[in-house]
Write a structure and sequence with these properties.
Strand order of the largest sheet: 8-7-6-11-9-12-10
Order of helices and strands: EHHEHEHEHEEHEHHEHEEEHEH
CATH topology of the largest domain: Alpha/beta knot
CATH class of the largest domain: Alpha Beta
Strand content: 15-25%
Shape: elongated
Number of domains: 2
Number of helices: 11
Oligomer: single chain
Number of strands: 12
CATH superfamily of the largest domain: SPOUT methyltransferase, trefoil knot domain
Distance between the termini: 50 Å
Radius of gyration: 20 Å
Largest sheet: 7 strands, parallel
Length: 261
């Protein structure tokens, strides 16, 4: 592969990449983002994506990336001094490899709908983990409220470990209107007087599972829009699970019920 060396933060390509790493608006306007690390680059390539630019820190051996270079020959390859790469890296522990890529729009999955709906999930790591859980369970769609963190931010992508490349995601959605239009069962994962035991529900038909903010949980309006509230029974002396764990338990219970024996 042929690399171009960048040694100045005044370089226009450096400025463009830095803005993508830092600004949700820049990512939305360009429908582009930055991936951190070889694993995410491989997942992006496996999903059919073609990187625009690949950036290597000087301390990362070029020959280690030969296989990646063969898979994306059209990409522009850059090498940066480690100090400059650290300024560009959008995560606390950079791997030495970044890729500028276009957002992917995965095709909707066929079969009985299994949708995860997320309200105001603001921590990028949690959001990525929840999308990863949905993708692993075979969810057909993820629907995110306007208050959710950007699912295409570098930190959310790291948390998702490739989920955003295979799970269709709708972001910035009016959840009340969306839930009102869904033809199937909507279950809000929430405590309350009328909250049902989650394990008593029949989850085999078209299904939406709604999870809420890490601290505040689901809003009353969204619980009403869902129609059914349910909780996961816990034998231990803890009041509740965090949002990511609760969603994982719930979505894989739906998977268990849908399995044919």
């Amino acid at each position: 592969m042929t690399e171009t060396a960048i040694t100045s933060r005044d370089n226009p390509i450096f400025k463009r990449l830095k803005k993508l790493g830092e600004s949700a608006r820049a990512r939305r306007d360009a429908h582009m983002t930055l991936l951190d690390g070889e694993h995410l680059l491989e997942a992006y390539l496996d999903a059919g994506g073609t990187p625009r630019t690949v950036v290597r820190a000087a301390s990362l051996a070029a020959d280690r990336l030969a296989a990646h270079a063969r898979r994306c020959p059209q990409a522009k390859w850059l090498v940066l001094p480690d100090a400059l790469f650290a300024e560009l890296a959008p995560v606390a522990t950079p791997t030495g490899l970044l890729a500028e890529v276009a957002w992917l729009a995965p095709s909707p999955f066929a079969g009985t709908p299994l949708v995860i709906v997320l309200e105001d999930i603001q921590d990028p790591g949690n959001l990525g983990a929840m999308l990863r859980t949905g993708a692993a369970a075979g969810a057909t769609l993820a629907v995110l409220s306007k208050g959710c963190h950007d699912p295409w931010s570098p930190k959310a992508l790291r948390g998702g470990q490739g989920a955003q490349f295979v799970l269709p995601v709708q972001a910035g959605v009016d959840l009340q209107a969306w839930l009102a239009g869904f033809d199937g069962q909507c279950v809000a994962l929430a405590l309350g007087e009328r909250s049902r035991d989650f394990y008593t529900l029949d989850l085999r038909g078209p299904l939406v599972l709604v999870a809420g903010n890490e601290g505040a949980g689901l809003s009353a309006a969204i619980c009403r829009a869902a129609g059914t509230c349910a909780h996961i029974p816990m034998a231990g002396r803890i009041e509740s699970l965090n949002a990511s764990a609760a969603l994982a338990v719930a979505v894989f219970e739906a998977v268990r019920q849908r399995r044919t024996r």
